[in-house]
Amino acid sequence: MRHILAVLVENNPGVLTRVAGLFSRRGYNIDSLTVGRTENSNISRMTIVVSGDDLVLEQVTKQLHKLIDVIKINDITSEQYVDRELVLIKVGADPTVRGEIMQIVDIFRARIVDIGRKTLIIECTGDEDKISAVIESLIPFGIKELVRTGKVAMLRGQKFTSINDNKEDDN
Amino acid sequence: MKMTAAGALIECLKEQGVEVVFGYPGGNILPVYDALCQSSDIKHILVRHEQGAVHAADGYARVTGRVGVCIATSGPGATNLVTGIATAYMDSIPLVVITGQVPTTMVGTDAFQEVDITGITIPITKHNYLVRDAAKLPLIIKRAFHIASTGRPGPVLIDLPKNVLQQEITYTQPTDLKLLGYKPTYRGHKSQVTTACNLIKHARRPVIYSGGGVIASNGSEVLTELAERISAPVVSTLMGLGGIPGCHPLSLGMLGLHGARYANMAVMECDVLVALGVRFDDRVAVDFSSFAPKAKIIHVDIDPAEIGKNVKIDVPIVGDVRMVMETMLGQLAAQKEEQWLAHIEELKKKYPLKYEQGTGLKPQSIIETIRELTSGEAIIVTDVGQHQMWAAQYYKAKKPRTFVSSGGLGTMGYGLPAAVGAKVGVPDRPVILITGDGSFQMNMQEFGTAVEQGLPIKVIIMNNHSLGMVRQLQEFYCDRRYMATIFTKNPDFVKFADVYDALGLRVTEAEELRDTLERALNSDGPVIIDCVIDQEENVYPMVLAGRPLSQSIDG
Ligand SMILES: Cc1cc2nc3c(=O)[nH]c(=O)nc-3n(C[C@H](O)[C@H](O)[C@H](O)COP(=O)(O)OP(=O)(O)OC[C@H]3O[C@@H](n4cnc5c(N)ncnc54)[C@H](O)[C@@H]3O)c2cc1C
Ligand SMILES: Cc1ncc(C[n+]2csc(CCOP(=O)(O)OP(=O)(O)O)c2C)c(N)n1
User: Fold this and answer.
1) Which ranges of B169-211 would DSSP assign to H, the alpha helix?
2) What is the CATH number that goes with domain B2-170?
3) Closest listed ligand to the CA of B441
4) ipTM of predicted complex
5) What class does CATH assign to A82-152?
6) How does pLDDT run across B349-362, given as a tens digit for each residue?
7) pTM (2 decimals)?
8) Residue A152: which residues within 8 A CB-CB, separation 6 or more?
9) Whether A171 and B179 lie within 8 Å, measured CB to CB
10) CATH superfamily for domain A2-75
């Protein structure tokens, strides 16, 4: 099963190496990992998508906790959350098919962000299913290049992953 | 106060109560040595190889319970520390390791003697730091000692670029550690402890499985009290030896691959297993799925990641094992499990630890004689191999922090430098190294350190002219094809001692053993005793690959 972990870390040099190294060293599979600053410039937030059974997940979480730079971990998989990915797709786009592509872009509420002589770059944000669907629909036109960010996620409503709430599980 | 960062480092070490450091100098660490030179409060012990420095700091930490400190220069100095850092990491030993680094302006340029030691040691340190800002040095040192010595102890490395060391800073001791992500749990969860106590109350065949965590928490006395209170025999891991006195009626000695048969059987038959500061290592459990099959398992450990890692646990308790045991004692009345204890006595009689008597110089009898001559009061340091197992089985360590051995990494060459560190840490007790001819030759240069420092350690080499432990594996698993395990040329270890103006002795016959050992123990200086033993001697009991713990074989 896939789990989404929201991880707050101290924004120290090497923290990404520590986290990524832990995963590879212990043989855990990362599906995606994103990292960026938060509202507090000393703290970064990682969203890690990892697959494994409950036992693996328990070990992943516990081992991550052992890293001194890791402040907090939330497994938000079973909670209500919003998740988004961003994708940039460069598709082959002869003038003859541009109309068709633009329709697809509209349907997915995506955007065209660059127009070349024979290509278009399309930007799309959404959850994983939507991103997959838009990619799927553009394949027939020939995808020349594709880059996606990996997932970022946030709990809905009154629940937080921040260092100030006291809901930290105390084992 | 204004001073260089190197000077501040020394102030910080003093602030932490550091009295001795083990090290080896070089270009990039020079400012630290210059600052050390100007301070008379910290003794520096010059080793012969950086691996010696880190093992010595480790030995010092194990016998004193304090943080061991070692220093090396950048590049090759730093990489020479790696095995020792890993050794300490695997056995949860608190160290602060200080390395020099090329100036920050040159970091990342493949400069002379540059190596990314923080990168290299991420997987083998509890944490590490590359200090780029001299002003932060006091805070980082304070954090390093805190992290190394609290929670589950472990090594912390601090990498110090030369130009950072030379910078002037205003030195003040930081008050706040500001470690957002580090808060070890010490008190066990109340209701979990109660659940555990209820299980124990209803146990008819309880066993305590005790390990390095009990030693680390200084919980030995509480352990003994708990065992007596609930009538539970205690099996120890290699790392847990000395947790309960080896001759205590409830002590069953070491369990596991080479554990006593009665210890292993007790685990296989018990109905409640109280696991205290242990990590269910594969040398112990042998086969995870069949470990303690009839038992409900209570596991107390300060590291949540150890609980349920290898074996399913019924009652997990995260906390300091001494504190948890103390809470338990408050809830447990004395219980007498006479039938169970009688059964254990029977097992002890039926399946004793044994070896052939009256056939020449026996390694097991060497250990027994040492135990007798020292009344179990000496500090025993071992290397890795058969001799290590004989020492574990027959020394029956009386007190915690008196049995020092590389368990998790199994580092040959650990022994001699660790003995140096142990003697520095506890100068008023005899320190005896039990080593093999293979292990000794891995770091025998450190004998020079012992002699130079006037450390009267006694080195017992169990000389079988082979890598005995591996030869034994080849005997069982490779049809005696002794590939690369026999030494056809060893140095004369007696002459080796002589070269250093130390006393060298040799024992070849059982009859000479006692007198020679007595002579060695009574002399004031370092001694090497070359004990020539049978090459084909094996360690028994032994659990063969694929068999459950209960089915170990005797010779
Ligand atoms: C050749 C060879 C053969 C070996 N054969 C055997 C054998 O037959 N039997 C055997 O037992 N070992 C054997 N070993 C050693 C083995 O490899 C392990 O090192 C050892 O079993 C681990 O001991 P431990 O479980 O006590 O854990 P340790 O490595 O000592 O770990 C300590 C545990 O306690 C926890 N802890 C630390 N501080 C605290 C605290 N304050 N409160 C609570 N918990 C704490 C830690 O988190 C950790 O889980 C052998 C080693 C070698 C080299
Ligand atoms: C650094 C290192 N290299 C290799 C090994 C594998 N190994 C384990 S025991 C052993 C033999 C040890 O020989 P010796 O020190 O003579 O002790 P003996 O077993 O003969 O008592 C070897 C090679 C090891 N544990 N450590």
Assistant:
1) 190-201
2) 3.40.50.970
3) 2
4) 0.93
5) alpha beta
6) 999 999 999 889 99
7) 0.97
8) A34, A36, A47, A83, A84, A85
9) no
10) ACT domain (3.30.70.260)
